[in-house]
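User: Let's play a game. I give you a shape written as tokens, and you guess the letters that built it. Ready? Here's round one.
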């Protein structure tokens, strides 16, 4: 059958029948695993004040196996006392590590007491949601993370 066919025609016929056999070996965007949309966060925050509180600290974002150093700062009204807190949790809706940078507020910016610990859900202007929990050490009448600013160190 192929004896009277030119080599370009043989090649074309071969490609038509061979391509489905190799199609599974080719990279295909829909079958590629998506990058994680979430990372883990860890913050050490200290707040001090009388009526107007000032707070700040440092932390890390772990995203795709890379650890990024962060700084956190913020001001809250109604603070009386001094308190320190270690917060751990997740940062979701990340498209890249830089999305974590910004001012957080909104969602439920105040920390609420849940079983001796505290939990908070905050959102920044990039849509990144921080869900953190931790325990407070020290005395403070309110520990409000609303307006917390996160930046790279």
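Assistant: Ready! My guess for every position:
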């Amino acid at each position: 059958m192929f004896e009277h066919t030119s080599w370009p025609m043989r090649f074309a016929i071969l490609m038509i029948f061979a391509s489905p056999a190799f199609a599974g070996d080719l990279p295909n965007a829909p079958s590629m695993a998506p990058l994680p949309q979430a990372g883990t966060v860890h913050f050490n925050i200290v707040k001090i004040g009388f009526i107007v509180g000032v707070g700040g600290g440092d932390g890390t974002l772990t995203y795709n196996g890379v650890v990024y150093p962060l700084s956190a700062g913020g001001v809250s009204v109604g603070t009386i006392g001094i308190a320190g807190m270690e917060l751990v949790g997740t940062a979701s809706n990340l498209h890249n590590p830089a999305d974590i940078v910004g001012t957080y507020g909104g969602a439920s910016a105040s920390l609420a007491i849940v079983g001796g610990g505290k939990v908070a859900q905050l959102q920044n202007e990039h849509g990144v949601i921080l869900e953190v929990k931790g325990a407070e050490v020290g005395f403070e009448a309110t520990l409000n993370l609303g307006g917390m600013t996160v930046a790279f160190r």
